[in-house]
Amino acid sequence: MAKRLMQLSYCQDEKSGAWKPCPGTGAGAPPQLLANNSLRLSTVQMHRAGGVFVIPITLNDSVNQYAILDSGASNVQIPQEVADELRRNGSLTDADGLGQRRYILADGRGVLDKVFRLRRLKIGDKVMDNVVATISAPNSRILLGQSVLRRLNGWAIDNIKNTLTLD
Fold first, then answer.
1. Taking the model in full, what pTM does it have?
2. Which of 8, 13, 91, 95 is 20 to 30 A (C-alpha) from 47?
């Protein structure tokens, strides 16, 4: 049940444990520049969902979702129903397909997933174009993997404030 609530953009209140709609993030604000013309750090509030922390992301400027930060995942992973939504709104086409690839899961099993290119992925103030992603089984969770994390200069989790800072 927790997995389904998270897919529906519900977050678990840390104090009461009750499920409620995840709060807005203010995504869409332009990046702020520092005096030396470099981008400032982007801090994103994490939310608890089903025992893990999730962060808000936007896929192809059209679909807002919550993703689990997974440094062990090779790529961004999205469930079949999210890929279907991207197709319905026209932001994912056959031209974005990159074939299939075999992946080894944490439990040692191998799976063959469809690989595609996300035209744009947004996390807080950070925008990344041409991100490699895979389409996973229906009702799975979105994972934010190395195809995004390795593009950053660095990232850090603040366990007190429940924030993710991206550099």
1. 0.71
2. 91
Sign, CA dihedral 73-65-13-138, equals negative
**Pair 150, 84: CB distance under 8 Å:** no
| pLDDT 10s digits, 40-61 | 688 999 988 888 889 999 999 9
Query: CA–CA separation, 124 vs 166, rounded Å?
Result: 9
Tell me the C-alpha distance between 140 and 65, whole Å.
Answer: 13
Q: Tell how strand 163-166 and strand 42-45 pair up.
A: antiparallel
CA distance 163 to 159: 7
Structure tokens at 74: 């090779």
Q: What is the pLDDT of residue 26?
A: 33
Region for residue 122 given its phi and psi (left: phi exceeds 0; alpha: psi -120 to 50; beta: otherwise): beta
pLDDT of residue 27: 31
C-alpha pair distances (Å), 80 with each of 83, 86, 87, 109, 112: 5, 10, 10, 19, 13
- pLDDT at residue 11, rounded to an integer: 65
Rounded to whole angstroms, how far apart are CA atoms 147 and 95? 19
